[in-house]
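Please discuss these two lines.
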Amino acid sequence: MPVSYVQSLDQFQEIIQQDSYSVFMFSASWAGPSKHLSPVFQSFSNHEAWEHVQFFDIDMDEQPDVVQEAGVSNPPTFVVFNGGQKVAAWTGSAPAGLEQFLNRIPQ
């Protein structure tokens, strides 16, 4: 499933209330690690191991209300929600670390 882009706080709140796993990449265009991990995140979104997960990207500069709501401070940070609850979060720049983080999402 391709990565979708969150355009508003209302959209974010609607997504996280769903009874399914959603992973958000909080990124910034000026942050080297965000640029480095963005194509990896895109690739993982199409992997069958995570076909039950929705993938979203949030530009931290364009969506400060969403950033505040999620409690994120550094890009790139990845946050998983399910049923309105924050399930897990990881901040880092290693593709292997991102893969390990995604592997912890229940099937």
User: Anything to note?
Assistant: Residues 4-103 form a domain with the Glutaredoxin fold (CATH 3.40.30.10). The mean pLDDT is 96. Residues 32-45 form the longest helix (14 residues).
